[in-house]
C-alpha cells in the first residue's frame, strides 16, 4: 500500500523553513542598517537592498535543499521509499523546479528592472530635488536599456536551438516551426537558463574579483586582529603635534608682514587638511576606545582566532578541491567543444572524499555543503567591504560602517545576486556527482542485485533522480567552458590575495572609517553607531 510522507516531518520541515526565512530577513535588515548612511538613507533604497540581499541568501540555500530532497526519496539499499512513487517524486521535482523558476525570475527582475530603477531614481533625486515625475521619467528611460538587454537574452535563449536535425531538404518554415516546438517543449527552461547563465558569467567575474580575495583576507584578518585603539590614539596625538609644529614654522615666516610664497601656501593648505583628518581620527578613536563593542570584541578575541583558523581550513579545502577538479577536466574531458564536461571522477579531491564519509551520519553532508555555500557568500561580502566597488581601475563607492551611500548598497546587493548564481556551478565543480544525485544509490540487475553508487547512466535507467540545479548548469557548452577558465583565474587570485594578506600587518581599528574627503558631519554617524 502506498504511504504518504509523515505529516509531522512535513510540518517540521515547514517550521524550519519559516525560521530560516525569518533569520535571513533579520540578518539582512541588521546588515543593511549597519552599513547604510544615516544622513542619506531612503526608505525605497533600504527596502530594495534588504529584499535583494534576502533573495541572494535564499537562492544560495536552495542548492542544499535540492540535494536533500532527491536523496530523501530513496533508501540506503537503492530502493525508493514507500511514499515516493512516480507521481510524488514528480511533484517534488516540479516543486523544486518552480522554486528555481520563481527565484531566478525574481533575480532577473531585480538585476534588470528594480535595482537599476531605484539606483537611477536616487541619482536623479540628488541632481534635481522636488520634481518627482521628472525623476521617475529619467529613471525609467535609463532602466529601459537594462530591460532591452534582458529581453534580448530571453529571446536568444528561447529560439537558439540546442539540437537541430541536419536535414538538407527542410524549408525555412519547418526550421522556424521546430524552434517554436522546442521552446514549447522546454516550458521556457532554456530561455531562463540562457539568461541566468549570462548573468552567471558576470557573477563569475565578480567572484574572481571579490570572493577570491575575501576568502584569503577574512580568515587572516580574524587571526591577526586589529591594532589597539589606545596605541593608535597615542600615535595619532604625536602626528597632530608634529603637523601643528610644522604649521607654526611655516606661518612664522610671515610675522613681519611678508606674504607666504605660493609653495608655502599650498603646503599650509595640505597640512591644515591633514590636521582636520587627524583630529577626526582622534574623535573616532576616542569613541571606539570607550565603546562597549570594543570591550566585547577584546573579550572574544580567542574565539575570533578559532574562527579564523577554521575559515582558512575551509578556504584551503575549497581551493585544493577546485584545483584537482579542474585538473581532472583538463586531463580527461572531451575538450573545449564539450565545455570540459567529464562523466565521472578520475582524480578525487578532498571534498569528494569527505562527502561519502559524512553521508553515513545524517545530516553532516548537508551541513558541509551549506557551510561551504554560506562561507562563499560571507567571504564575498568581506571582499566587497574591504575593496569597495570598482569599475575597472575607477573606484566608485566605499562600503563603510554607518556611512555607505544608498547607491553603494544597491551595487553591493546586485553583485551578491550575481555571485550567488555562480555559487551553484562552483559547488558542482567541486563535487559534480554529489550535486547531481546527492547520496542516492541504485540497483542494477546482472545475475544478482548489486549495489552501486549513482553515476551518469543511472539517470538514463530512471533509477536515480537528478537535481533541478543540474538542469540549469549544462544547457550551453560555451558557458561551461567559460566557467572552466574562470575557475583557474579564481585559484590564481586567491593565491595572490593569500600572499598579500600574509604580508600585510594588522588592520587599523578604524580601517576605512576616516578619509580626507569626509565631512565633519560624518563623525556624528559613527558616534551614533558605537554608542
TrEMBL record:
Keyword Transmembrane helix assigned: yes
InterPro entries: LMBD1_LysCbl_Transport, LMBR1-like_membr_prot
Keyword Signal (UniProt): no
Keywords in alphabetical order: Cobalamin, Cobalt, Coiled coil, Lysosome, Membrane, Transmembrane, Transmembrane helix, Transport
Record localization: Lysosome membrane
Superkingdom, natural source: Eukaryota
One GO-annotated biological process of the protein: protein localization to lysosome
A GO CC annotation given for this chain: lysosomal membrane
Residue stretches spanning the membrane: 12-32, 44-65, 98-122, 142-162, 189-213, 305-324, 366-396, 408-430, 442-461, 481-500
Topology in membrane: Multi-pass membrane protein
Single GO MF annotation: cobalamin binding
Coiled-coil stretches noted in the UniProt entry, renumbered to this chain: 261-288
Family: Belongs to the LIMR family. LMBRD1 subfamily.
Record-given protein name: Lysosomal cobalamin transport escort protein LMBD1
Amino acid at each position: 500500500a502506498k504511504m504518504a510522507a509523515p505529516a509531522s516531518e512535513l510540518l517540521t520541515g515547514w517550521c524550519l523553513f519559516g525560521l530560516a526565512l525569518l533569520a535571513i530577513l533579520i540578518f539582512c535588515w541588521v546588515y543593511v542598517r549597519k552599513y547604510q548612511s544615516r544622513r542619506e538613507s531612503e526608505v525605497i533604497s533600504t527596502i530594495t537592498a534588504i529584499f535583494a540581499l534576502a533573495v541572494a541568501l535564499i537562492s544560495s540555500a536552495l542548492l542544499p535543499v535540492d540535494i536533500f530532497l532527491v536523496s530523501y526519496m530513496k533508501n540506503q539499499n537503492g530502493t525508493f521509499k514507500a511514499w515516493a512513487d512516480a507521481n510524488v517524486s514528480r511533484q517534488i521535482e516540479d516543486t523544486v523546479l518552480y522554486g528555481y523558476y520563481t527565484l531566478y525570475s525574481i533575480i532577473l527582475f531585480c538585476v534588470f528592472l528594480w535595482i537599476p530603477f531605484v539606483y537611477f531614481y536616487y541619482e536623479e533625486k540628488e541632481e534635481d530635488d522636488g520634481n518627482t515625475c521628472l525623476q521617475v521619467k529619467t529613471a525609467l528611460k535609463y532602466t529601459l536599456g537594462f530591460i532591452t538587454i534582458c529581453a534580448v537574452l530571453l529571446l536568444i535563449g528561447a529560439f537558439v536551438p540546442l539540437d537541430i536535425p541536419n536535414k538538407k531538404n527542410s524549408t525555412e518554415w519547418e526550421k522556424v516551426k521546430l524552434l517554436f516546438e522546442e521552446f514549447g517543449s522546454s516550458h521556457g527552461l532554456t530561455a531562463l537558463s540562457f539568461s541566468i547563465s549570462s548573468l552567471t558569467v558576470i557573477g563569475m567575474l565578480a567572484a574572481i574579483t571579490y570572493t577570491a580575495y575575501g576568502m584569503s583576507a577574512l580568515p587572516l584578518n580574524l587571526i591577526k586582529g586589529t591594532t589597539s585603539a589606545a596605541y593608535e590614539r597615542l600615535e595619532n596625538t604625536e602626528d597632530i603635534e608634529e603637523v601643528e609644529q610644522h604649521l607654526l614654522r611655516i606661518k612664522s615666516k610671515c610675522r613681519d608682514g611678508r606674504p607666504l610664497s605660493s609653495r608655502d601656501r599650498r603646503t599650509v593648505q595640505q597640512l591644515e587638511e591633514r590636521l582636520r583628518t587627524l583630529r577626526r581620527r582622534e574623535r573616532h578613536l576616542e569613541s571606539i576606545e570607550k565603546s562597549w563593542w570594543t570591550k566585547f570584541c577584546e573579550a572574544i578575541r580567542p574565539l575570533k582566532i578559532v574562527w579564523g583558523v577554521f575559515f582558512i581550513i575551509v578556504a584551503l579545502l575549497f581551493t585544493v578541491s577546485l584545483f584537482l577538479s579542474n585538473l581532472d577536466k583538463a586531463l580527461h574531458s572531451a575538450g573545449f567543444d564539450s565545455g570540459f564536461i567529464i562523466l565521472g571522477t578520475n582524480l578525487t579531491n578532498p571534498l569528494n572524499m569527505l562527502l561519502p564519509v559524512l553521508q553515513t551520519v545524517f545530516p553532516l553532508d548537508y551541513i558541509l555543503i551549506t557551510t561551504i555555500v554560506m562561507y562563499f557568500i560571507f567571504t564575498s561580502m568581506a571582499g566587497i567591504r574591504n575593496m569597495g566597488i570598482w569599475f575597472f581601475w575607477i573606484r566608485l563607492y566605499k562600503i563603510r560602517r554607518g556611512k555607505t551611500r544608498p547607491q553603494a548598497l544597491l551595487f553591493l546587493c546586485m553583485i551578491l545576486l550575481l555571485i550567488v548564481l555562480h555559487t551553484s556551478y562552483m559547488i558542482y565543480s567541486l563535487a559534480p556527482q554529489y550535486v547531481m544525485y546527492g547520496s542516492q544509490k541504485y540497483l542494477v540487475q546482472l545475475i544478482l542485485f548489486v549495489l552501486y553508487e549513482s553515476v551518469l547512466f543511472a539517470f538514463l535507467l530512471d533509477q536515480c533522480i537528478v537535481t533541478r540545479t543540474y538542469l540549469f548548469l549544462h544547457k550551453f557548452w560555451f558557458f561551461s567552458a567559460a566557467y572552466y577558465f574562470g575557475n583557474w583565474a579564481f585559484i590564481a587570485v586567491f593565491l595572490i590575495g593569500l600572499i598579500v594578506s600574509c604580508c600585510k600587518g594588522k588592520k587599523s581599528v578604524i580601517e576605512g572609517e576616516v578619509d580626507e574627503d569626509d565631512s565633519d558631519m560624518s563623525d556624528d554617524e559613527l558616534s551614533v553607531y558605537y554608542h
